[in-house]
Structure formats: structure tokens, C-alpha cells
Design a protein that fits this description.
- The radius of gyration is 28 Å and the shape is globular.
- The chain has 3 domains: 81 residues; 197 residues, Rossmann fold; 178 residues, Rossmann fold.
- The N and C termini lie far apart (91 Å).
- A hairpin with a 2-residue loop joins β3 and β4.
- The protein has an 8-stranded mixed sheet. Strands 9-10-11 form a 3-stranded parallel sheet, sandwiched between helices. It has a 3-stranded parallel sheet with strand order 12-13-14, sandwiched between helices.
- The chain is of the alpha/beta class.
Amino acid sequence: MDSRETDASGDMTATLSERLTRAEREIVQLRIRLYEAENWNQALEASYRFRLGRALVDAVATRRAAVELPGKLIGLAKDAYQELQERRQLLNRGFPLPPRSEQADYTPTPGQVLYVLHSSYPYHSAGYAVRSHRLLQALKARSVAIQPLTRLGYPLDMGHDPSLSGGHTAHVDTVEGITYQRLLVPPSRVGPRSGLGQSAYLERYGTRLTQEARARGTALIHAASNYQNGLAAAFAGRRLGIPVLYEVRGLWDLTRIAREPAWRGSVEHRIFRRLESQAALEADHVVTLTGGLKTEFIDRGVDANKITVIPNCVDPDAFSPRPKDGALLQTLDMEGKIVIGYVGSLLHYEGLELLVRAFARVRHQEPDVRLLIVGEGSDRDRLLRTIKECGIGNECRYVGRVAPADVPRYYSLIDIAPFPRRGFEVCELVAPLKPLEAMAAGKAVLVSDVAALAEIVTDGETGLIHPRDDVDALTERLRMLVTNAELRSRLGTAARTWTIENRTWSAAAGRFAELYEILQDRQRLP
């Protein structure tokens, strides 16, 4: 053998030995990290155990194949471990906020409010966007100086409008006189696939929000759900020394639990709950939509005196009794029929499968009844399968999503508006907006007895209530309304009167404006 070949072989053997030794050390480190991850909390998300375990398996395979352990696998394991460490810190200590400023370098403009939102028109049109928009219109009508601004990265992080430029270029959308400011950042920098951790996102968001608030002379930040807005607002409020109002519109973790029961108690769930509580505790004042939500946050340690309930409302002019739209009736082939109609999101906790089954029973005895479903959602396919299973495809009309401006046209066709929400925790605490629209339109509403719906309907006076998750009771109440036109008329008239007297956006805006004044006056006190 040539001496050069012998030297080369020796060098290769030495290099291989060094690589194997390094691989073995990495394998040991991975075993330690995997052990720590698995023993920190048994409910740890499977995805993190899988990522660490996969890296370990690959490391062993690499060792046996006598090749260098790929650095990217070690990097993946290290990234997963660092994320676990961050989650542990968030769970135990929450998001670290800066100290409160003494306002030495900032003088706000009295009355200037920044309204921070998760989503808005025109990209979203569900209840969250409707509440934001109607409140803004009503506040503007009261001459409140308020500027809406959506969360960092929206709407690009949701896949909307990919033609928008990246970077920090400002962009606005104006809808019905309301101009929404965007904080555009490319999804690669803040989106789900950016690799940006929760703490890093919140700090970046809080810093950007501080800049925006300072530039506008903001005197108060009003942040609506979820905790990302609340904590970014708390961050900016501390930096600038201005008050923060946190508006809790729901508990999104409970929405997920209703869909994925096994998620309850997981580390991710516990962190979500921890940060949502922190957002409320750090705010100068908290607004909730229902009494149930207020009680929930009192139980979490928030002072009852700093929580105000301002419920969902409705525009009685936009939703009012009107003759049935003849052209739409003809298009849907519902002329001369009694229409049971649902307008809203198609989610499994709404109880629409129960509604379909109850309708099928009523249809056997009352042939002149039809079911109209308007909306979109994750439960659509299951709902359509249930309609087919019940053999009522000819008596049902599924329309899908319609433009907000067209919703009153569809309500004009409806005689009975059922909202049979299931007995999930989220349904007990969070009130939907759609029943109020039906009530303002003078419809006979039928709701389940979950607490959030029982707050807005008085059984036998402004609507009917049935026991939750009870298809027999739902069927009986539907049949009662189908066969009694006088009852439908009386309930619908009373429901509209109640909404006008108790649930208008103008009145809600007045309560928010009062809170803005109180919080700013308190901040100005020496």
C-alpha cells in the first residue's frame, strides 16, 4: 500500500472516531433532554416528545451507520428544548412586562384612544368583527377620538391579501367610514411557521404598539381579546404610563376544548389560561360580555370592582321586521312555507345536528315547514351528512356564507330562529351575537338553557327556552311554534322591544366612553 494511502486511511479513521464520539455525546444530551421533557409534565404535547424522540432515533441510526450526526437534527432538538424552557417560564411566571413609566418622556393627547383588535372587516365578518365595527361606529357618533388597529402581522398571517407588501409599511382598510390600521409584517417573521416564540412575538408586538401609541398621542389603550392584544397593550401602557382597558370577549381555550376535550390540562392550555389571566390582572379595567365571564375572572383573582359587563348588542335599524323577500323566497322554493332558520357559524357546539334531527321529526307531522341554514364553519360537512341521513334534503336549504349586508334579507324569510347551543363550558360563559339580531328582526327565538343565552331570553315572554342537549324537548318546542302563529308573533314583538330597550350599540358605546373618561381622569390625578 502506498504511504500516502496509509496516511489518508489513518486520517479518515481518526476523523471517523472523532465524529462517532461527538455523536455519542449528542445522543446522551438528547436522552437527558427527552427525559426532562417527559418528566416535566405528563400532559406535555406529543409533538414535542416526538420531535426530541425523532432526533434521538436519527442520532442512533447515524451512530450505527458510522457517519456524522446531521447538525440540523441536533438543532431541531435544541430548538424544541428551548421552546419547552420558554413554555415553562410562561407557565410559572407569565410574560415579563417592563416596569411602569413615570411619563417623564411622554405627554398623551387627552381623549385619544387606540383600539387594538385581533381581526376585523373586511377579512373577517363573524361576531367579533361585527362587535368591533358597530362599537366603533357608535363611538365615532359620540365624537370619541378612537383609532382601531389590528394585531401585529394581521391579515398576512392568516393568508389574506398576499399582494400586500411586507416590512413595516403601514396599510389601512376603510369599511363604512371606519379605517382599520394594519401592522403588516411578513408571515415568515411572525406567522405560525416563522419559528418566533410566544415571548418574542409579544415583546415585538408590545414594542411596535408602543411606537404606534406614542406617534398618535394615545391617552388610553383599549385591547380586545385575546391575551396577545391584552399583554401587548399592557407592555405599551407601562412604557408610556397610560391606562389600559382589556375587553374579554370570550375564552378561546374553552372553544378549543369543546372541539378537542383531550387538550384540557395540557401545557399549552395551561399557558393560554395563565396568559389570559395575566392580561386581565395587569389591565386597569376589564370589560366582559356576560355575568358568567365576570364571575370567572373574579375567581381568577381580578378585583370585582374593576370589571364591568357590557354585553353584545344590535342595531335595531339594520335588523328590523320586514316583509318576506319575494325574490329570495322564490329562489329557495319556500313560498307559502313556515321557515325555521339559522344564521351563524356552523360549529359543533352550536347544536345544529340536534336541530336537524328535531326538524326531521316535526316535518313528519307538519309538511309545510322548511329548514334554512345560512353560514359556514368546521361542522358543515357533518351537518350536511346528518341532513342526508335524516332524508330531508328536499326540505332543507343550505346557503353557505353570505355578505353581512344580505343577512337581513335572509332573516326576512325566517319565522322561527332556534339557537340550540350545547352544554359546553364555553356556551355557558360566552354569548353569541346572532340571537340578538334575530330578536331585533322580530323573530320568535328558541334557545337552549345555557347561562349565556338565558341572560337574553325570558322563557314565554321574549322567546322560548329548551333544556340543552335534549332533542325531544327541542322537537316539542319547535312544534309548538310551528303550529301557533299568534305565539310566534307575540314573542317576536316582545323580543324586538326588549332589544331596543336593553341592547343597542349606542348605549354600549356610551358606557365605554364613560369608562374611558374615568380611567383617564384617574391617571391624571397626582
